[in-house]
Structures are given as structure tokens and as C-alpha cells.
Amino acid sequence: MKIIISGAGEVGSHLAKMLSNEANDITVIDSDQGRLEALASNTDVITVEGNPSAIRTLSEAGAAEADLFIAVNPSDSQDVNIVSAILAKKLGSKKVTARINNEEYLTYENKYLFTEMGIDLMFYPEKIAAGEIIDLLKRTAAADSLDFARGKLQIAVFKLEEESPLIGMNMAEFSTVAAEEGQKFRVVAISRNDETIIPKFDTKFKYHDLVFIISKREGMDMLMKYIGKRNIEVNNLMILGGSPIGEMVAKQLSRQMESIKLIEMNKEKCIDLSEKLPGNVIIVNGDGRNSDMLQEESIREYDAFVAVTNNSETNILACVAAKRLGVARTIAEVENLEYIRLAESMGVDAVINKKLITAGRIFKFTLSNKVRFIKYMSGTNAEVLEFIVSPDTAITKKALKDMDFPKNAIIGGVIRGNESFIAVGDTQIQAYDRVAVFALPEAVKEVDRFFR
Fold first, then answer.
1. The pLDDT of residue 142
2. pLDDT of 322 higher than 90
3. Which residue of 38, 313, 328, 429 sits 20 to 30 Å from the alpha carbon of 202, by its own alpha carbon?
4. Fold of the CATH domain 2-123
5. DSSP label of 70
6. Sorting pLDDT into bands at 50, 70 and 90, what band is 372?
7. Collapsing DSSP states into helix, strand and coil, what is residue 189?
8. Residue 224 pLDDT greater than 70, yes or no
9. Superfamily for 357-450?
10. CA atoms of 318 and 239, how far apart (whole Å)
11. 371-376/350-352 β-pairing
């Protein structure tokens, strides 16, 4: 697949590395030669220096023959992304997508307008991240979560602490427990020491494992008992950072929570936020990295702490401080991918990363049109995909146990009409089923072939 990425910033560079691993032909456009050289030094890409919204540059990059054009210049270059995506489509690119930073563009009417102009997908990473934080505040026992069919099936990620009943148990024993409970849940993966494991029957659960489990809605409470976790109700929230993510989280949750306090270092931004946000959101001008300042703002009275400044280190350390001061739930935005594991090992409950969020949305375009969505879950390099099954595809020919399905992938659950069920060896996939698959990167293309 020929892919052009416009923008060699953090998001563009991450996409280039990820997509080049899939044997795609990648070309990257940027006006900064230094960024292009840094990317080309460790990634197999062709680079084109120039204005990404100039027809000459787009033509030189091969927009006329591109299968996919991705405009991901930094968030302050929204207009450049939109213009370059429209031009690429007019020049011949089959599919185009653009990063934006304006929520207004995502209304139904405006999305239709941009579709008419040729843009297949617009994405606002900060808005998606805010939505994920809000979901994590509703399900406080999990490090990450994902719903299928409005929650009929759910994938949740749990970190095993010392008191977890699962520690020392193997997969065969846990499968027996699941069978006794009516097969309402199933382990699909374990993340341990930077490695993601698709478990076998003799795989044992260990302390600090991140366990990925798919569950029917009615099985979640029962599952939490076996994991040794419980949800807490978040009524009081403290947010560090008046970034777009912090602003959107505060605005949306202001209608649901008793108290929200947002701390921001920049005085001018504080004034701006106080004018934009509802009156029940308290804006404080100060340095939230200082634990004394957090104590002065009565942090011990808050149920959750979310750190979304523009600095990953600040977010991690602030969450660690909040945890030590007694906050039950902490969430950090961590944009340095190598820091994600560090944050989790230091006790941060959940991590949000815009690059991974964006990558999932984009990667969908490189697979068949039977993929409804794809998402990277926290703490793993694996992907969760949802497929719609077409008649006569390979996946419908045999029961799962008789199928040569990739060993680095697992079918977790199936939604059939109004019913949902956990997939087991005897499950036979049928046409028009919606199927939830957990797969390591090297297996994704092979999995996709079963549904083509």
C-alpha cells in the first residue's frame, strides 16, 4: 500500500514507524528538513521537503498514486491539514484523512460538508483522549476499557496487585471458573515485562501482570470479584493542566460531578478557562507539580486526579504525588511512549497517549472494509479489532478449534443480532456476526484475510 504522511511531528513519525513495519510504501512530507532527517535515520521512508499544502510538493510525493494520504501536521496547522487532504484527494489519492483541532468541524452537518469535499475521516486526538479519560473515570477498577455494541461485550485491562486471587492460578484453572459461571468472561492476553502474551492453558498469572479480559455485561461484577478489584464512584475530580483535553474533560463532567478543580500555571489561560467553563469548575492558578500546593488545595478530599499538561514527566510525577496523598484514582497523559511502562510501574492507575489513539484510527484504513474499528489498549502493543463477517469468508467455514487461526491472535467474543457471547473452541462464526479480535501486530494482516 502506498501511503503519504504529511507532517513529521510526533504523531506523524509514530505513524510512519508503525505503518512501515507492515511492508507499506511510506512517503513523509514536512517543511522542516531536520525532522525528516531524524525520521529517515531510523525508519524506512521516503522524505519530501516542502510546503505540505503546495500542489508541487504533493505531486512530488506521489499523491496521484497514493492509496492513503494522512495529514497530521501539528495541531496548530489545522488549515494546512484540511487543504492538503482536499488537494491530495483531487490529485488522485484514494482515501484521505486529516487531523483537526476544532470540535465544531465534527458536528454531523459539518462532517458531511467535509465528506463532500473529499475528506474520508477527520480526527481530533485531544477530543478522543478526553472521551477515554471520561470512560476511565466511570470504570475506575480498570487501567483501560473498551465497549462493543453499547457495552454488551466489554474488554477491560486489570493490573494484578498483591491481594488478587488470580496470582499463582493458571489459565486452565481460571477457564474452569469461567465455565462454572456460565462462560461470561475470558482472558485474551497478558502483558508482562514489556511482552504481550496470548495465554495458553499452563500460563500462570503473576504479580503486576496487566490482564486483558473480555466479558459479557452481566459478567463484569462477578469478574471483578475474582480479579480482586472494585469500582469507586468519582464525585470530586482534580485536573492538572488547562490543555484542550483538560478543558473538555472539565466541561463534560461538570454536569455530573459535585466538584471539579482545574489547576493551571499560566495566568492568562486561567482567565480564559474561567470564562469558558461552567461556574462549578474552580480554576486555580498555581504549580500542581508542588505537593505542598496540592495539599493546600485539599487534594485528599478528591476521588480522582487527572494530569494532562503538555509535559509527560510532570503528569507522571504529579499522579505519583497525588497517589501518595491518598487519591484513589490517577490518570496521566503520557506522550513519550517509552515512559508508559515507567508510569504504570510507579503506580499511575491509567495512561492516555494521543499517538496510540490516533494510530488506531488511521491503521483501520490499511485493512479491509470489514474492520469496524481498531484500538491500541494501554500497556500493550497489541490491537483490538472489531470485524463484521461477510458470507462465505474463511472465518465462517469451521469451528474455531478446527481453524488454523494465527497463534498471536485470539477471538474473544461475538455479537449476533441482539445476543452476545464469549467465543470458545466450539464456536462457529456466522455471516453478519460482529467479532472482537485481540491480535499482536505481526498477526493483524493474517487475521484480516480470514474476514476478507
1. 74
2. yes
3. 429
4. Rossmann fold (3.40.50)
5. E
6. confident
7. strand
8. yes
9. Regulator of K+ conductance, C-terminal domain (3.30.70.1450)
10. 10
11. unpaired
Task: Report how far Cα 188 is from the mean position of its chain's Cα atoms.
Answer: 17
- Helical axes 244-253 vs 125-138, angle rounded to 10°: 40
> Which backbone phi and psi does 10 adopt, to 5 degrees?
-60, -50
Give the sheet arrangement for strand 210-216, strand by strand. Answer: 144-148, 153-159, 210-216, 185-192, 195-197
- Domain spans of the chain? 2-123, 141-227, 235-327, 357-450
Least confident interval from 274-283, 311-320, 343-352:
343-352
Quick: pLDDT tens for 141-181. 777 777 887 778 888 888 888 888 889 999 988 888 888 87
Sign of CA dihedral 59, 61, 67, 72: negative
Mean pLDDT score, 310-336:
93
Q: Which one, of 38, 16, 14, 11, lies nearest residue 27 by Cα?
A: 16
Three cell numbers written together for 275? 470564562
**CB environment 442-452: b (16+ within 10 A), e (fewer):** ebbeebbebbe
CATH 3.40.47.10 fits 141-227, yes or no: no
Look up residue 335 and give its DSSP letter: -
Identical topology for domains 141-227 and 235-327: no
The residues pairing with 351 across neighbouring beta strands, listed in sequence order, are 332
Q: What class, spelled out in words, does domain 235-327 have in CATH?
A: alpha beta
Closest CA to 359 of 107, 1, 37, 21: 21
Q: Are 173 and 337 in contact (CB under 8 A)?
A: no
pLDDT at 75: 62
Helix (H) or strand (E) holding 330: strand 329-333
The three grid cell numbers given for residue 236, joined into one nine-digit string: 470530586
